[in-house]
Amino acid sequence: MSTLRELKSRIGSVASTQKTTSAMKMISSAKMRKATAGLQQLSPYRLMVQQVLSHLLVTDQEFDSPLTTVRDVNHVAMMVFGSDDGLCGAFNINIFKQLLVAIDDARKAWGKDVKITILPVGRKLTKAASKLRIENVEVEKCPLNTRSDGQQVHDFTEVLRQQFLDHHYDRVDLLYMHFVSTSRQRFTREQFLPVRYEALASQADARLATEPCLFEPDANAIFNSVLPLHMQAMMQEVFTESMASEQAARVMAMQTASDNAKELLDELNLEYNKLRQQSITTELLDILGGQVQR
Questions:
Q1: How far is CA 96 from CA 105, 157, 177, in A?
Q2: Which residues lie closer than 8 Å to 33 by C-beta, 6 or more apart?
Q3: Which among 47, 91, 182, 187 is most buried, taking Cβ atoms within 10 Å?
Q4: Measured distance CA(117)–CA(139) in Å, rounded
């Protein structure tokens, strides 16, 4: 049976843990709000780029860009977004499981000889991916991490674009957690390169077809100028979505840990009070027993 001193020590330890998890939850909540605010700031820019593309795509003209060229896939890059830090529940585990599914799908679609390069963002996924031992699958160090700024994201996007144009990669996919709400994040896999012309066309606003536009120098030149901007906006949005999802997962993990600590604390306090009452009763009986013997 635990002594009063041992129980008191355990109660103090659990209470300290509860305070720590509550504080971490508050910090993660603040970081999540900052990330979601970043998503809102990105929205006007991406909408403007999409509007320009819509003006172009609702016309009857044909567009040609090396960024939309579909070719035989011999080498595919999978850029997967995780976290640098832990204490975010099953966030990284779920992404890693989906990465394995994506690798299996790629080998089924393009054959076992297809070369797959994994570009992990975040120390946790980098460590997990480095342990993979799958034929024709390699892990390449990515210069981005969860603390990278907008300029670093921009620069790496340009690197990926150039590697695609140089035929180093035939396809680039983005694997990340899409932020839905604090309690819900949805794994998403998007084709980044080549840019899917059908996806762009499906987002075009047909109502813009009634608005006359004059394109200078010509529509195709504008299309090729705006497409890289669309890619930059997409990459920045995915990066920020992943950050928001990570912090949301950490908020929920810390909330669960705090709730468990509170439940354990209540049980320990009940046990402590019972043991203390039993000790007092024993002492009273000893005192009464001594008086009777006199």
A1: 14, 22, 11
A2: none
A3: 91
A4: 6
DSSP element (H, E) containing 118: strand 115-121
pTM score, whole prediction:
0.87
Q: Tokens 């997962």 map to which residue?
A: 249
For residue 184, what are the β-bridge partners?
181
pLDDT over 90 for what percent of the chain?
62
Pick the CATH number of 32-251 from 3.40.30.10, 3.40.1380.10, 3.40.190.10, 3.10.560.10: 3.40.1380.10
pLDDT tens figures, 29-47 = 999 999 999 989 988 888 8
Locate 150 and state its tokens: 């907008």
Kindly list the domain boundaries of the chain, sorted by start residue. Answer: 32-251
User: Which are the contacts of 2, defined by CB distance < 8 A and separation ≥ 6?
Assistant: 10, 271, 275
* Cα 15 versus chain centre, distance: 31
Q: Which is more confident, 128 or 278? A: 128
Residue 216 to residue 40: CA distance in whole angstroms: 31
Which of 26-35, 45-54, 83-92, 127-136 is least confident? 45-54
Task: State the pLDDT at residue 138.
Answer: 96
> Strand ranges (DSSP E) for 135-234?
137-139, 171-181, 184-193
